[in-house]
Every structure is written in C-alpha cells, then in structure tokens.
Automatic annotation (TrEMBL):
Positions of the PID domain: 161-235
Organism: Laodelphax striatellus
InterPro entries: PDZ_sf, PH-like_dom_sf, PTB/PI_dom
Origin organism lineage: Eukaryota, Metazoa, Ecdysozoa, Arthropoda, Hexapoda
Name recorded for this polypeptide: PID domain-containing protein
Pfam families per UniProt: PID
Length: 240
C-alpha cells in the first residue's frame, strides 16, 4: 500500500507515504492521518505485529480503510496534534501542504467562475453504462435525440457525488452520488463536450442508464471535472 506507520498511544499514525504507491494516489491517505480500521480490522497497538501481513494480503485488491484525517477545516484536527508531536512529524510542513491545497482550490474555483458550462441534454443508453457509450451519447444529443435541455449551469464535484444547478433559477437539475455513476469522459473528435453516465440506483444493481451531456468552453475545466469524478468514484467505492 506504500504507507509507513508509527504507533503512538495505541494509534497508527501515517509517518510516510511512498511516492507512486496506491496510498499516494489522489492524496487519499496523507502523512499525519490515523489508520483506524483496515478491511474490517480495528488497528490498535496489538495490531503492530500483524499490520504488515494485513497489508500484504490486500496486495492487488481493493481495500476498505477508515481514516481519522489530520486535516480539519482550515487547520489540523486538534485531538490529533499531540500525537503528531509525539510521532516527531513536521507539523509546519503538513500545514504548508494544507495551505497549498487550499490555494489550489481557490484557483480552481476562480477558473470555474470564468468557465461557461451548459447542460445540453440527456439520452438513455439502456442497460449499458460503460465508457464506450459516452461518444454515442454525445453524438445522439448533438443530433437532436433524447431530452434537450440547453441550460447554463454550475457543475459541482462534491465529497459524495456531483450536483448540477441551473444558474438562472438556482434550481438543482441533477444530483448523483459517485456510487450511481458508471462512467464519464469525452469524445476526442468532438472538443469541448463531455458526459457522464449514471443509473437510477447502484450501478451494480441497475439495468437502466442515462448519459448526461455538457458543453464547456475551457478544456482544462473539463479535465478537472472528469478527474474529480474519477477520484470520487475510487474514494467512495474503495476508501471510506
């Protein structure tokens, strides 16, 4: 998994994250976080000798991990700070990274304010929700098929899902959890359009999928949205 853990007062504190490891992907696990549970096993001091075995058993498979995050709002989670000090972690570097992430979020928010996203419409893809249906869904909407919407919207990627709101009426048009989203992407031959496919329930239990198509005038914003959906999908499916 790529995590070095140090036990402090019975808590497994993440001391180091190996670059290019599973744990390093998307900063899901960060230095200072506490591993509270791994694949149903509560992690305490008694787990110290078996933690490596637990991690090795999960090699190549999705894992379920419960974390107590070191970061809280715009600061560090107060109860964790004494543990970080005891673990001799550099608190200032953790805070600097947190501030850099906040600055990046502000930058993304400012870029989003400049962008113009239009919800073009949606079309059924039947029982198929894989990424191969994206290009076809976009083409169908652009050819006038499906439900034509054509509304200027704000597109938000939240912790548990996406929310699309009509800018003029401040009305929520779409709201899907990442567990309901089967795929997302764009068509190379049709720039500035992107889409995601969602079901009316959990993807694994559904045979009714709909492709939701959007237009955005800034390609980098499309990339950010698609990456955020992908990260949200992995986070809610594999990491709690």
């Amino acid at each position: 998994m790529g995590v070095t853990v140090i036990f402090v007062e019975g808590k497994a504190v993440c001391f180091d994250i190996q670059k290019n490891s599973v744990a390093a992907e998307d900063d899901v696990v960060e230095v200072g976080d506490i591993i509270d549970e791994l694949n149903g096993n509560v992690i305490t001091t008694s787990s110290q000798g078996t933690l490596n075995n637990l991690m090795r058993k999960t090699a190549g498979f999705p894992i379920s991990i419960y974390l107590i995050k070191a970061k809280w709002k715009n600061n560090l989670f107060p109860p964790i700070v004494p543990l970080l000090v005891a673990a001799k972690l550099d608190i200032s570097s953790i805070r600097q990274k947190q501030m850099a992430e906040q600055d990046a979020k502000v930058l993304i928010k400012n870029e989003m304010a400049k962008s113009s996203i239009t919800y073009i419409g949606n079309v059924s893809t039947g029982s198929l929700g894989d990424v191969k249906q994206i290009a076809g869904g976009i083409n169908q909407i652009l050819s006038g098929k499906g439900n034509q919407i054509d509304s200027l919207v704000t597109f938000e990627c939240l912790d548990l899902g996406v929310k699309v709101t009509d800018k003029a009426q401040a009305k929520i048009l779409l709201k899907h959890s990442y567990m309901e989203i089967a795929s997302c992407g764009c068509a190379v031959e049709i720039p500035y359009y992107f889409a995601y496919i969602a079901s009316d329930g959990l993807c694994s239990q559904s045979d009714n999928f709909v492709c939701y198509v959007f237009h955005c005038n800034i390609q980098s914003e499309i990339d950010t949205i698609l990456n955020s959906i992908g990260q949200g999908f992995k986070r809610t499916h594999y990491v709690v």
